[in-house]
Design goal:
By secondary structure, the chain is an alpha+beta fold. Helix content is 30%, strand content 27%.
């Protein structure tokens, strides 16, 4: 495959971002120096699995990997979508693959109905509960109709989880204006347990509520215990918390804690510690502020850049490294530049990171397979 005109990137840290943006822009990309000095150099198993998903979700893409796995050449095809089942690697959570489908499915030729199997919740990746409760409403603000159903839980290491993602293609996205945060009016949450005592989830709920009730009284966290086939192949538990603001259109901030057995044994942690940690992470996210949380900054920037040639503005907390790199890559692949200015807040200590308002003019990515209304 010829490298002429291909985007040149190095390293493995933003491997998935490059593949997604290459697919959307139609530009080929070469990613070199993928863990060259590692004991196990080259592409990991879950990254190879991700490339298989891209090959199934598109038509005509070409992928070349050198003998050591340290160089990947990717030439994108046409995004076709469709209906199929994909088995995800248990090295990462299903959210690793699901985020890519969320970015690509609105521009597919056909409606998307994909079933993903694997680990449903893993702290390194966005959890399926957050995608269902926060990401899906965010997509609606851009004019995208999508839904996610959790069919089975799947805890590490063996997984066994199963989710169904459905998305209808759009001709083009809508511009967005989210600069007024409002105040937190209520907190909702879900604590789940699978193949273990349901008491562990109840203990997490009690611990998290004990801290959050100091912030506001409207808090409701449910406990859900999974048994049999719905519980997946490994025992596990976790908690997801979502804060909802008074802003018109309802804005959400979310955090999730999914402890792994090795971590709990090593650090001698209890379910109470996990519930308290989840509450503190949510409070930290609220302190940082913004109309979207840190896990949704990158996808918000992406859809702003792909939207119509109108001004889109979103208030965010301090940008994550992942979001900052998304800004850089959007300029490389689409030529979109963002304006970022700090938003002044009266009566806030200087130690608290300032909010920023990010704005851009979209590039109007049009799905030619979708007829205009």
């Amino acid at each position: 495959m010829s490298a002429k005109g291909a985007v040149q990137e190095t390293g493995s840290r933003f491997f998935r971002q490059n593949i997604i943006l290459a697919t959307l822009s139609g530009k080929a990309v070469e990613i070199s120096d993928i863990r060259p000095k590692d004991m196990n150099p080259g592409v990991r198993g879950y990254e190879g699995n991700f490339l298989k998903l891209m090959a199934r979700f598109t038509n005509g893409c070409r992928i070349e990997i050198n003998d050591t796995g340290t160089l990947v050449k990717y030439k994108p095809g046409v995004i076709v979508g469709g209906q199929f089942t994909h088995d995800c690697s248990c090295e990462r959570g299903i959210g690793y693959w699901l985020e890519a489908l969320i970015c690509l499915a609105p521009f597919a030729k056909q409606p998307t109905q994909v079933i993903l199997t694997g680990v449903t919740n893993k702290e390194i990746d966005i959890g399926v509960d957050i995608v269902r409760t926060v990401t899906m409403p965010l997509l609606q603000k851009f004019g995208v109709d999508a839904s996610l159903k959790i069919l089975r839980r799947g805890a590490p290491p063996l997984g066994g989880g199963r989710v169904s993602f459905v998305c209808s293609p759009v001709r083009k996205l809508q511009a967005i204006e989210l600069v007024e945060e409002g105040k937190i009016k209520r907190i909702r949450g879900l604590a789940y347990s699978a193949r273990i005592s349901p008491d562990l989830a109840n203990r997490m709920v009690h611990s998290a509520k004990g801290l959050l009730l100091k912030l506001l009284p409207d808090i409701f966290i449910t406990s859900d215990h999974f048994r049999g086939d719905e519980a997946g192949l490994s025992p596990g538990f976790g908690i997801t918390l979502v804060a909802e603001s008074t802003n018109k259109g309802d804005l959400f901030l979310a955090e999730e804690v999914v402890p792994e057995p090795e971590q709990m044994t090593k650090d001698q942690l209890t379910p109470e510690d996990m519930g308290d940690r989840a509450a503190r992470l949510l409070l930290e996210q609220i302190m940082r502020g913004g109309c979207v949380d840190g896990q949704h900054q990158a996808i918000t920037l992406l859809f702003m850049a792909l939207g119509p040639e109108q001004l889109s503005r979103v208030c965010m907390g301090q940008l994550t490294e992942y979001a900052e790199n998304m800004q850089r890559l959007l300029e490389v692949y689409f030529g979109v530049t963002f304006g970022v200015y700090k938003q002044k807040r009266a009566g806030v200590p200087s130690s608290v990171p300032q909010r920023v308002v990010v704005s851009c003019i979209g590039q109007t990515l049009v799905n030619l397979s979708k007829r205009s209304a």
